[in-house]
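seq as requested:
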Amino acid sequence: MKEKTRLVHPPRVSPPDDNPPLVAPLYQSVKFEHDTVADTLRALRGEREGFFYSRSANPTTRQLEQTLAAMQGREDAIVCGSGVGAIAQALLGLLKAGDHVLCFVETYAPTRTLIRRTLARYGVRHTMLSIEDDAGIERVLKGTPTALVIFESPTNPAMRIADIGHITRLARAAGALTLLDNTLAGLHQHGDTDVDLFLHSLTKYASGHGDVMGGAIIGSTALIRRLRPEFILMGGVLDPHAAWLIQRGLKTYLLRYEAQCATAMRVAQFLEAHEQVERVHYPGLARHSRHELAARQMRHFGTVVSFDLRAGAAAGDRLADALKLFAIAASMGSPESLIIPPGLMGPYDLPPELNALSGIAPGTVRLSMGLEDADDLIEDLAQALEVAVAADLT
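struct tokens:
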């Protein structure tokens, strides 16, 4: 071979079958080849194992899909470029004109917008309730033919708890699919429920380091087989390098989640006892309205703590400004602790009558626990709370 050809076709080096790498290699390749046209056609028809084009499948992303499915206690998964991408592609893949969706005020704002605005343009109808309206859920599912129930537990940011068994029993009887955004609860929780599909933003706990984005839909072989062609056509692919980074992050997933939950409980207890805090939203606290339900459904109560400041929105913003260890930033699950103050809190997309059901007060603050020492975080919150309320006392 001449030099130009040799550079394009370098020698291939693969370890022997009995000498595998401890860390799986990154397949940063868009294309894969077969020896013959016949073998290529057999692979495309699913008659043999193999890969052809990374928009359809890639060994690195496939390893991540199988890992996620096993963690969530299901058969298969699809990964894509972001959590919102997973939501949008799943909704578009599951629904058609004339279908009805049951959704909830406490749902992630982009999910609400996709249902209320994007899908509505294509003739998909919806009913929106509070996740705690058990009677309303029963009334809708018994009275309105429904294709899909989409919900969260715990909800963000009010940390409300869905009665998952109640929802899935009613949905199953009504012939509706259930889709649970399980991001806050994590990949290791709720797998023992009768939920049809789980949705995760891999950007949060799966990645764990705040440096890569991804999303996933997890469910049975039949449902994932139904959705995969839609995901392939929409093209929201997860890059193999991002998949490799998320797979690496998963090695410490449980260690991080458990540590962050322990810190969340400590912080929630501190805030519950603070005179400037009117209410703490954390299902691990006995005073939480659905603590017993959460204890039955969950192994861990989550890493997010929200609370309402008595002094209101301005004090909440001053609190964020005064904190030294909490970054004013979106998301959760990273090593750094984060805060969303009232000035950045929603929901801004809902009319007043629905906004009133959201559980978000003028002084609501959301904290996401990182991996710092709990004593340091509590000390930081104590000094910032003092600063935040001092302006109202002068």
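The chain has a mean pLDDT of 95.
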